């Protein structure tokens, strides 16, 4: 059964107690809807809230000095957002909606209660956030060291893998939910270059496109072409022993 719950996502890696699950449910009892194209928060704005995406799709990005946009992260249901608020009073990135979305909201005082009352849960949340950091490091490395073809292939694999994790019955053909401009802003390419790379991947029989959907024809070759690593594979939180 598909789940968009952050608690269920965390529960894939550590057995949560009933009290920990209740604490997570209480975190996001406030909700906010964001329409496609709308901003949840903007870079350098004062911000005090954290968010958990419940429905839809978001992205985080920064605007560079030349006015161009660098997308840092695609955010899917179950993801926790704006953890930089732990260290900064102002947003370090803009979070906007790629589709009509709903987020749960909680503030620093709620996070402080989790730390005080459920330190093991807090440690698990921070450990899981390191998966995001590792994936971001992969993207930074790819921007400097891999081909345009590899970068585009990596985005396709990342989105497919993360959607399939939400729903094990996720179909072989899927709607990517991203424009070529958005793929370009994540990979440091123009939309024209992205289109050329997608056509090249099709010509090589690695993917197929039809009706707005993408099909990964030869996944093993595509992974090799992208130098792709699924950072959710191999996550180990076994060191977080059950509370006594």
Would you mind describing this structure in some detail?
The chain is of the alpha+beta class and 244 residues long. The protein folds into 2 domains: 6-141, Jelly Rolls; 147-226, Orthogonal Bundle (Arc Repressor Mutant, subunit A), CATH 1.10.10. The protein is built from 8 helices and 11 strands. The protein has helices at 6-11, 18-27, 108-117, 119-145, 148-166, 180-187, 191-203, 219-226; strands spanning 30-34, 39-41, 49-55, 58-63, 69-75, 80-81, 94-97, 101-107, 173-175, 207-210, 213-216. The protein has a 4-stranded antiparallel β-sheet with strand order 1-8-3-6. A 4-stranded antiparallel β-sheet has the order 2-7-4-5. 32% of the residues are buried. The mean pLDDT is 91.
Contiguous helical run count: 8
Distance between the termini: 31 Å
The proportion of residues in beta strands is 15-25%
Main sheet summary: 4 strands, antiparallel
Task: Tell me roughly what share of residues is in helical segments.
Answer: 40-55%
CATH architecture of the largest domain: Sandwich
The H-and-E topology, N to C, reads as: HHEEEEEEEEHHHEHHEEH
Could you give the count of β-strands? 11
The CATH class of the largest domain turns out to be Mainly Beta
Rg is: 18 Å
**What name is given to the CATH topology of the largest domain?**
Jelly Rolls
* Biggest β-sheet: strands ordered side by side in the sheet: 1-8-3-6
Overall geometry:
globular
Low-confidence stretches: none
């Amino acid at each position: 059964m598909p789940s968009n719950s952050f608690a269920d996502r965390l529960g894939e890696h550590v057995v949560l107690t009933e009290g920990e699950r209740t604490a997570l449910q209480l975190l996001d009892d406030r909700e906010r809807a964001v329409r496609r194209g709308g901003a949840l928060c903007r870079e350098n704005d004062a911000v005090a809230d954290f968010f958990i995406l419940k429905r839809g799709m978001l992205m985080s990005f920064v605007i560079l000095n030349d006015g161009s946009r660098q997308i840092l992260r695609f955010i899917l249901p179950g993801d926790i957002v704006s953890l930089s608020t732990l260290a900064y009073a102002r947003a370090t990135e803009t979070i906007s909606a790629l589709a009509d979305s709903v987020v749960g909201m909680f503030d620093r005082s709620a996070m402080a209660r989790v730390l005080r009352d459920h330190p093991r849960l807090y440690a698990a949340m921070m450990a899981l956030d390191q998966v995001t950091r590792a994936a971001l490091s992969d993207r930074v490395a790819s921007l400097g060291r891999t081909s345009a073809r590899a970068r585009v292939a990596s985005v396709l694999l990342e989105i497919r893998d993360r959607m399939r994790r939400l729903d094990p019955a996720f179909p072989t053909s899927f709607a990517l939910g991203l424009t070529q401009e958005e793929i370009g802003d994540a990979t440091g390419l123009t939309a024209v270059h992205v289109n050329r790379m997608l056509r090249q991947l099709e010509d090589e029989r690695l993917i197929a496109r039809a009706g707005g959907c993408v099909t990964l024809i030869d996944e093993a070759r595509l992974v090799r072409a992208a130098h792709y690593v699924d950072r959710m594979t191999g996550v180990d939180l076994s060191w977080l022993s059950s509370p006594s």
